[in-house]
């Protein structure tokens, strides 16, 4: 039996000066549409995880950050039917620009303890506890 392909995904907990964290709604038509995720996306072949996250934050939210502002926080894996997702979460407190959903996706800022009650993708959920302990 062949192992499932692994999909490497990076995401950011963007934390504002009040300690709130940005969530982005997954757009209609995409896998897990309507759930609220830590923004990010797939690592492309030949990319470092940090470069992928910087690119995704630029493409999805229109903000600029740099590798020195991305602190690795935690990771989790989740098995889907056709692939195995490995999700790496970085904490980011410094960026340029104001996040807005480039594809029309809605955004919300929430306190870490309120994340447990939000409909997040299954790979994101197990990250909340570690994130809460870290920040
Ligand atoms: N995903 C899960 N949690 C996240 C992100 C950014 C992504 N915080 C999952 C959803 C998709 C896959 O990773 O199955 C790839 O994400 P995208 O490229 O569709 O954003
Ligand atoms: Mg994405």
From TrEMBL:
Residues binding 8-oxo-dGTP: 26, 31, 37-40
Protein name: 8-oxo-dGTP diphosphatase
Highest taxon of source: Bacteria
Boundaries of every Nudix hydrolase domain copy: 5-135
Protein family according to the UniProt entry: Belongs to the Nudix hydrolase family.
NCBIfam families: mutt (TIGR00586)
Keyword Metal-binding: yes
SUPFAM superfamilies per UniProt: Nudix
CDD domains in the cross-refs: NUDIX_MutT_NudA_like (cd03425)
Keywords, in A-Z order: DNA damage, DNA repair, DNA replication, Hydrolase, Magnesium, Metal-binding, Mutator protein
Amino-acid positions noted as binding Mg(2+) in the UniProt annotation, renumbered to this chain: 40, 60
UniProt cofactor(s): Mg(2+)
Gene Ontology biological-process entries: DNA repair; DNA replication
EC number: 3.6.1.55
Catalytic activity: 8-oxo-dGTP + H2O = 8-oxo-dGMP + diphosphate + H(+); 8-oxo-GTP + H2O = 8-oxo-GMP + diphosphate + H(+)
Catalytic EC class: hydrolase
Any one GO MF annotation of this record: 8-oxo-GDP phosphatase activity
Keyword Hydrolase tagged: yes
Pfam families: NUDIX_4 (PF14815)
């Amino acid at each position: 039996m062949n192992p499932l392909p692994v999909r490497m995904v990076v995401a950011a907990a963007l934390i504002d000066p009040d300690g709130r964290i940005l969530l982005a709604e997954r757009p209609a038509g995409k896998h897990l549409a309507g759930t609220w995720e830590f923004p990010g996306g797939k690592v492309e072949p030949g990319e470092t995880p940090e470069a992928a996250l910087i690119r995704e934050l630029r493409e999805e939210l229109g903000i600029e950050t740099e590798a020195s502002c991305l602190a690795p926080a935690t990771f989790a894996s989740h098995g889907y039917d056709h692939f195995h997702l490995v999700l790496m979460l970085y904490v980011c407190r410094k960026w340029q620009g104001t996040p807005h959903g480039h594809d029309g996706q809605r955004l919300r800022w929430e306190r870490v303890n309120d994340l447990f009650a939000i409909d997040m993708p299954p790979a994101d959920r197990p990250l909340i506890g570690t994130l809460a302990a870290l920040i």
